[in-house]
Specification:
The structure is a single chain. The chain is globular, with a radius of gyration of 24 Å. The chain has two domains: about 350 residues, Alpha-Beta Barrel (TIM Barrel); about 60 residues, no CATH class. The strands form four sheets. An eight-stranded parallel beta barrel has the order 5-6-7-8-10-12-13-14, surrounded by four helices. By secondary structure, the protein is an alpha/beta fold. The two termini are about 45 Å apart. Bound molecules: D-xylulose and cobalt (II) ion (CO).
């Protein structure tokens, strides 16, 4: 079969000194970092929608990207061509995983039964390709936001019939996720929110979303899905207010409705900044709740108020991300899905490869640096020392829950106020990070 990305070689690790733009400078898949090869820590995934379907069209203009496998053409012939393109692309980059929405894979027909038959056919083909190339599915999902029937939401729709249609899409998306042995299943609620509270029964809508998720868990488990369900929080866009605003909100929802045993969080970097948080904050909130599931590895632009989905290049951010991940022992079923797209003027096949090289190298540096921070130990040691007054005496009684307010009051009145509080040493710690990141003798 002739190549689609003709003239693009297999992308190899050539090291930091290489000037070959079509090579990895830092991502060395088999290099062991701490306990595992980079490829296992990172589990890079290609997002079908950005790479195989999108063309760079925006609200002001048509697509610019050369996707000569006809990304935007909605026929089954092109659906198959996109599968060929996807596997050649992943293979050339050494990416092991991919993620998709149902309607990324096939054109949606007017009749859902026809769409479902198309999904059966294309996933037969994908399954064979996965075996041939040794590729795996990180997660699947249903697109419950593109079809105009979802303009008022899917699980939060005012219409029971539309709610059922969403259920049908989820059922099929779960069927194909299980068929392709997916490790996860995502709910991103782009239309699950509201434009005005004047027409919205928020409590009813949240109850219904939870009902739909419970049905999805029950069905998924009944057909042998053993992976994780994820909520991917995002505060706004397309809706003015989205219910899964941020990680803390999503976790509160999952706990409130008893979904927290089956669900974890898929943290997206750009969604974190849209919610007014750092990426690292969102990862920490998920991690401390034992719910850090998977990551949509992109980057936003802090000067822009929307989801720019850039390929990640900020090594400080990737370092802090991997530091959070390594501190909790890694991602169990999850990975790093590049939910990212080329800038509109980066419109050639080469640019698609440069984008992934950028992102994969940025995360390779991230994990190398994060391992250095952990091995160095100064930051962890500072943290232990910072809270050490809780290790004995009255502090220990506070932590164990034995102390009473009256007891603490007696303690404080007897001792009086401490002469001063201890320094938080922020600048010292930041300087340690820079030393670890940039010193040559690391
Ligand atoms: C949208 C977004 C989605 C989800 C999957 O902002 O991130 O692509 O990742 O539906
Ligand atoms: Co995403």
């Amino acid at each position: 079969m002739s190549e689609i990305f003709e003239g693009i070689p297999q992308i190899k690790y050539e090291g930091p000194q290489s000037k070959n733009p079509l090579s990895f400078k830092f991502y060395d898949a088999d290099r062991v970092v701490l306990d595992k090869p980079m490829r296992e820590h990172l589990r890079f995934a290609m997002a079908w929608w950005h790479n195989m379907c999108a063309t760079g069209a925006d609200m002001f203009g048509v697509g610019t990207a050369d996707k000569s496998f006809d990304a935007c053409v909605k026929t089954m012939e092109h659906a198959y061509k996109k599968v060929d393109a996807a596997f050649e692309f992943m293979n050339k980059l050494g990416i092991e995983y991919f993620c998709f929405h149902d309607v990324d894979l096939v054109p949606e027909a007017d009749d859902i039964n026809i769409t479902n038959t198309r999904l059966d056919e294309i996933t037969d083909y994908i399954k064979a390709k996965m075996l041939q190339y040794g590729k795996k599915l990180l997660w699947g999902t249903a697109n419950l936001f593109g079809n105009p029937i979802y303009m008022n939401g899917a699980g939060s729709s005012d219409s029971a019939q539309i709610f059922c249609f969403a259920a049908a899409q989820i059922k099929k998306a779960l069927d194909i996720t299980v068929k392709l042995k997916g490790r996860g299943y995502v709910f991103w609620g782009g239309r699950e929110g509201y434009e005005t509270l004047l027409n919205t029964d928020m409590k009813f809508e949240l109850d219904n979303i939870a009902r739909l998720m419970h049905m999805a868990v029950d069905y998924g488990r009944s057909i042998g899905f053993t992976g994780d369900f994820y909520i991917e929080p995002k505060p706004k866009e397309p809706m003015k207010h989205q219910y899964d605003y941020d990680t803390a909100t999503a976790i509160g929802f999952l706990k409130e409705y008893g979904l927290d045993k089956d669900f974890k969080i898929n943290v997206e970097a750009n969604h974190a900044t849209l919610a007014g948080h750092t990426f690292r904050h969102e990862l920490r909130v998920a991690a401390m709740n034992n719910m850090l599931g998977s990551i949509d590895a992109n980057q936003g632009d802090l000067l822009l108020g929307w989801d720019t989905d850039e390929f990640p290049y900020d090594v400080y951010e990737t370092t802090m991300c991997m530091y959070e991940v390594l501190k909790v022992g890694g991602l169990k079923n999850g990975g790093l899905n590049f939910d990212a797209k080329n800038r509109r003027p980066s419109n050639t096949f080469e640019d698609m490869f440069y984008a992934f090289i950028l992102g994969m190298d940025a995360y390779a540096l991230g994990i190398i640096n994060a391992a250095k921070i952990l091995e160095d130990g100064r930051i962890e040691e500072f943290l232990l020392q910072r809270y050490s007054s809780y290790n004995e005496g009255i502090g220990k009684r506070i932590v164990s829950g034995e102390a009473t307010l009256a007891e603490l009051s007696s303690f404080a009145c007897e001792k009086g106020a401490p002469s001063r509080a201890q320094s938080g040493r922020q600048e010292k710690l930041q300087s340690i990070i820079n030393q670890l990141l940039f010193s040559k003798t690391q």
